[in-house]
Design goal:
The complex is a heterodimer of chains A (141) and B (312).
Chain A (H helix, E strand, L loop, with lengths): L2 H8 L2 E6 L5 H8 L13 E2 L8 E5 L4 H13 L5 E5 H6 L13 H4 L4 E3 L6 H16 L3
Chain B lengths: L1 H10 L4 H22 L9 H10 L11 H28 L6 H22 L3 H31 L6 H6 L6 H18 L10 H4 L9 H26 L8 H23 L5 H29 L5
Classes of the chains: A alpha/beta (141), B mainly alpha (312).
The complex binds iron/sulfur cluster.
């Protein structure tokens, strides 16, 4: 593992993207930044612009309009950039699976590195999901 | 031998390397104290280093519709000017290498990091960046006026010395006008750093990092380093000009460190207790309140000089 990858895992800047969620997952993501969970301990920070992001946190069911934007955003992110799917909606479209408006799940649109299930997932689950992403990049299980 | 020493001064101590380390340390203190103020634990000591090393390994994306050359050159301009200022301020007490007018050079060089931000943002061809650029220019117009008045006041109190050595010998803080000048300079430094309440140019929630929006990878790392260096340089500038200067002998090193920490903590507390203000409010604040108070302080200083009242 190179030095920059090592540093990357200690300073993941996340960009938070909602592709038509019910907003509950987004609130749980923001919960992680509050004093109680404080992900800045691990160097995780919310990035304002996609150009600064290392992780794309995607919530929601990828409806027709946002799917195109999601793919565009993924191309705009500087590599290496990981995608993390948060919530049942972005994992498998959840309750919207039969909707005319949600033709594809997230991982058919962009490569996904980690899945965090739950409707919505707890902040603890999100933190442990990011931890699993770090382990995965490090090459352990 | 001289060449070797000069190289050592510029690159290692008190030059670029030392300033880089101190800058990273200051930016860690800034983040840690911010976290403690908000009852959080805060990032580890090496966090600023991790951030920069990580950014060095990321992809650089140059804008298609902007000007890639200017876009890439602007951060280097900012880093170069801020580190030159830092070296000039630190080397002066060490080897007494002050020349007439170096204060003016320092004041000019201190505007360059903001200008670099303006140039880089404008070259990125992004509408949100140009929004940030316009705000940054207005902010600069705002804070430069009171800043120059209080610097002129310091020069006046030091007996019209425009070299750093003469200024650092003066006892400006022991007077009413000196204290007012220091406070206003602190506000200007806050704006120069782009910290809340004056972070209008990079407002993350409204214009998505504004001027920085298109920067990625190593170029963003250069901006981060510039910010860290500035976080060290600007308090040192305040100490040199408004708070008795720096001397590297005996107990004075300790006093220097103490003054530095006090200024840093003041900056952080202002940062954490104030929400972002609008750009028109910032202009009103700097041109109205700050410039007025600075002019009044100047009047006090002149009166004190004419009537021989030392504490004015
Ligand atoms: S997974 Fe559940 S909580 Fe999250 S966006 Fe979908 S419906 Fe809402």
């Amino acid at each position: 593992m190179t030095l920059t990858t090592k540093a990357l895992l200690k300073s993941l800047w996340v960009f938070h993207l909602s592709t038509g969620s019910c907003n509950n997952c987004d609130i749980e993501v923001l919960d992680c930044l509050t004093p109680r969970h404080d992900v800045e301990r691990f160097g995780i920070k919310l990035a304002g612009s996609i150009r600064h992001a290392d992780v794309l946190l995607v919530t929601g069911s990828c409806n027709r309009k946002s799917a195109a934007l999601l793919q565009k955003l993924y191309k705009e992110a500087p590599q290496p950039c990981f995608v993390v799917a948060i919530g049942e909606c972005s994992l498998s479209r959840g309750i919207f699976i039969h909707s005319y408006n949600c033709p594809q799940p997230l991982d058919a649109l962009v490569p996904v590195s980690a899945y965090i299930p739950g409707c919505p997932p707890k902040p603890e689950a999100i933190i442990s999901g990011v931890l699993k992403l770090i382990r995965k990049v490090k090459g352990k299980r | 031998m001289d060449v070797l020493f000069t190289g050592l001064y510029v690159l290692v101590f008190p030059g670029f390397l030392t300033i880089l380390v101190l800058g990273f340390f200051s930016s860690w203190i800034e983040r840690k104290v911010t976290a403690r103020v908000q009852y959080r634990k805060g990032p580890p000591l090496l966090q600023p280093v991790y951030d920069v090393v990580k950014l060095l390994g990321k992809e650089t994306i140059l804008p298609k519709r902007g000007n890639p050359f200017v876009f890439a050159a602007a951060p280097l301009l900012g880093l170069a000017s801020s580190s030159i200022v830092a070296v000039m301020l630190m080397i002066q007490p060490l080897v007494a290498s002050s020349f007439v007018g170096d204060l003016i050079v320092v004041v000019y060089l201190l505007t360059l990091p903001s200008l670099a931000l303006v140039i880089g943002g404008a070259a990125s061809g992004n509408p949100l960046a140009s929004q940030g650029v316009s705000r940054e220019i207005k902010l600069m117009l705002g804070y430069e006026l009171p800043f120059l008045i209080v610097v002129a006041l310091a020069v006046y109190k030091a007996g019209f010395r425009i070299d750093l050595e003469g200024l650092s010998g003066a006892s400006a803080p022991l007077s009413v006008s000196g204290v007012i000048a220091f406070i206003i300079a602190l506000f200007c430094v806050q704006a120069k750093l782009g910290f809340p309440p004056f972070d209008v140019a990079e407002a993350e929630t409204e214009i998505m990092s504004g001027t920085y929006i298109e920067y990625s990878g190593p170029l963003l790392a250069v901006f981060k380093i510039t910010q860290a260096v500035l976080l060290f340089t600007l308090p040192v500038f305040l100490i040199t000009v408004f708070w008795g200067g720096i001397r590297f002998v005996g107990l004075d090193i300790f006093w220097f460190a103490l003054k530095y920490v006090v200024i840093l903590v003041l900056i952080i507390v202002i940062k954490n207790t104030n929400p972002r203000i609008r750009i028109d409010q910032a202009l009103k604040f700097f041109w109205g309140f700050c410039a007025g108070a600075a002019a009044a302080a100047f009047g006090l200083a002149v009166a004190g000089n004419v009537f021989g009242i030392a504490w004015l």
